[in-house]
Amino acid sequence: MGHTVEKIGGTSMSRVHELRDTVLIADRDAPYGRIFVVSAFGGITNLLLEHKKSGESGVYAAFASGDGDHGWLAALDRASDAMIEAHRAVLDHPGDLERADAFVRDRLVGARNCLIDLQRLCSYGHFRLEEHMLHTRELLSGLGEAHSAFVTTLMLQRVGIQARFVDLSGWRDTEQVTLEERITGAMAGVDPTTEMPIVTGYAQCTEGLMREFDRGYSEVTFSRLAALTGAREAIIHKEFHLSSADPNLVGADAVRKLGRTNYDVADQLSNLGMEAIHPKAAKTLRQSGVPLRVTNAFEPHDPGTLIDDQPAPTPAVEIVTGLNVFALELFEQDMVGAKGYDAFILEVLTRHRVRIVSKVSNANTITHYVDSSLKVLRRVEKDLVERYPSAQVSSRAVAMASAVGRDLEGLAVLSRGLNALAAAGLEAIGATQGPRPVDVQFILERTALAPGIKALHGALIEQTAQPLAKVA
Q1: For the Aspartate/glutamate/uridylate kinase domain, which residue ranges apply (predicted)?
Q2: Four-point Cα dihedral 110, 115, 118, 120, nearest 10
Q3: Residue 469 CA to chain centroid, in angstroms?
Q4: Residue 236 pairs with which residues in a beta bridge?
Q5: Nearest-5° Cα angle at 15, 14 to 17
Q6: Per DSSP, what are the bridge partners of residue 326?
Q7: What are 175-219's pLDDT values in tens digits?
Q8: What is the dihedral sign for C-alpha 434, 436, 439, 440?
Q9: At CA 358, angle to CA 356 and CA 361, rounded to 5?
């Protein structure tokens, strides 16, 4: 049947000891034929880089700020303490704890010395610190995955599993290799049928994963590993089921596990900030013919949701989700019949690295719904006004609720959705449905997003869909 490549995320990794006998060793009589890719323990990457949500400085952010040694050295000590605390929650044998402590000391002292040497080098005028910051970010980030993979290997070896630590982080490696070369070189001689490889989610390579994917790199490593090794299935173990809506919004009894969908739906969800998998990782799996399964790590006997390239057997809305966005609008009375407006707006948005979620236009107005901060949008507006001084340029905080499915043909999702919103006392600012029947978007006031999702889910899924297995 071939092997599987399976990924465990950071939040689940913090409870990896709970998953030892359910996910990692699902079958004591046949434990092999599985390759695991692991993220850092929960919260560790925030301490090594910066907090993903609050922006609070970690080691990287403190080092990049250039405020002196005290800030980043103190941050490195905090990261070290947290890493030790994380593996003490997982390991209990004194010998394993000693090895894990030594691993943290070796890696973090090495990183400390590297950063000090880099500061010293860049004190000379011929060298610029900013030219090395991306490599610094990758170095620090890789510490978290290397630590969690090493600790997981120790935990499994202690109970008799032939686990192998596979380090893709390039620690003290002087060679410059591509991602494919890094993976194939590390996996050479590894036999998944007789041992269990525990692979770091970060891989050092010439492409520089963080340049394009930043903290989404582990899914890229995971998907490429699955493709290169010819996995029969790629599996992501999350802390929840991939379901028809957020149970906190519509109720745990109302949501339904998807059970099965395709990569097209996964891409739509990614566009709305609800990633089942990074779209570039999904592309790798899709082109390699490797199906993806998303499971709840803490419900190991549930098969989860299978994602492949197959169409839906019947039309249905599968999921309702939403995202806070800004409506960036450019109105120019003289736009009609003229060319170049749209191209310049796109160029400005690209230059400021603003992510476009959706777009609508008419004769004299172009509106982009974007996922960005207001601070960045003010710079975008300034550039647009300088180019088109007679235009009216504005940004408005709104929300987008979207009904998504493999096939929405013939379901009248747009009209039924608008009626559901109206029945709930909510007003749609706008609504969009493209020719391809895979999603319908409803623009709402931000305060209306949660009740809007609940209303749409009730009308489009609860009242029409055949119940799948409910989310526990």
Answers
A1: 4-296
A2: -100
A3: 26
A4: 7, 294
A5: 120
A6: 370, 397
A7: 889 999 999 999 999 999 999 999 999 999 998 888 878 878 899
A8: positive
A9: 115
